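tool_call: predict_structure(chain=1)
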Amino acid sequence: MPEAVSRPTLEAVAARAGVSRATVSRVVNGGDGVREPLAERVRRAVEELGYVPNQAARSLVTRRHDAVAVVIAEPESRVFADPFFALQLRGISKELTAHDNQLVLLLTEGRADHARVARYLAGGHVDGALVFSLHLDDPLPGLIRDAGVPTVFGGRPDWDEDTRAADRGHAGEEAGRGVVYVDCDNRGGARTAVRHLVGLGRSRVAHITGALDQTSAVDRLDGYRDVMAGVPGECDPRLVVESDFTPAGGERAMRELLDRCPDVDAVFAANDLTALGALRVLRASGRRVPEDVAVVGFDDMVPVAEQTDPPLTTVRQDIEEMGRLMARLLLRGLSGGRDTEPPAAGTPGTAGRGVILPTTLIRRASA
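tool_result:
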């Protein structure tokens, strides 16, 4: 068997740098009080010897694990099939990697998994948690609160009354002081989408919702209603069909819409995947898009929106940036604002505890 290679020790680094073991410990653990010339000698010795700090020992000193749990309240089959989650995880991963933190991914297949996730978080394995895709009756927020883990949420929470200020619909307003979260202007984006369809002269504008146990779907439905309430004769409840943010759900809802209202001439879908399903059904039914039925989605997930037939007009939210901001806000909270840059000046919502990012209509061939 090959001989085990001994790892450089803290004492070896101290000897190489000509300083005490305590000085080396302070430098490698990010402590203060070491003059820069000595710190530079320590860093040079660490590099020359290839010293890697023992994480367990380091955690005893710093009380930090340099690890963050990302909790997605969805089953594995949904997470790996929906590019939304990949984009948000990419933003989170980039920010954590830039600050030498590890990402620990936790998924919930069902209610039995919630207690497992809570036990893991309470066990002191991570410094904080990023949690998204929550449902309105989800027990996870309460379990995480009881675990005492610093948390940033993706999406406007429903349980904190302060966050309801965001639901009144203007990106950039101070919102949600009780809970730290990042979201886009779902209601405002929905208004933009529906106004666009109405502006095209469409008279029967339908909405295929997302899962209405999630605040993003509720806010987008409210945005649709905001506009349609001002259009004479357009408050037909048959024009709203609930779905679930999936292509299959979009197909089912579009078939139901055509059965209910065969004269529908426009559809605002709650996300791009729903729109993808709706487009399939419209094509199969012989409806031309956009000549017969105009379609607008929400998200602007480019791999989906640019490859639909025809390419999808949609409301863009910066999903990757939302993930990056979630991670940045958590790391700033953990470090007391010292270790990471604050959100860029002018970022909407940063005055409060919630960050509400603006949305933009991206026009393509479907509407």
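agent: The radius of gyration is 25 Å. Proceeding to next step.
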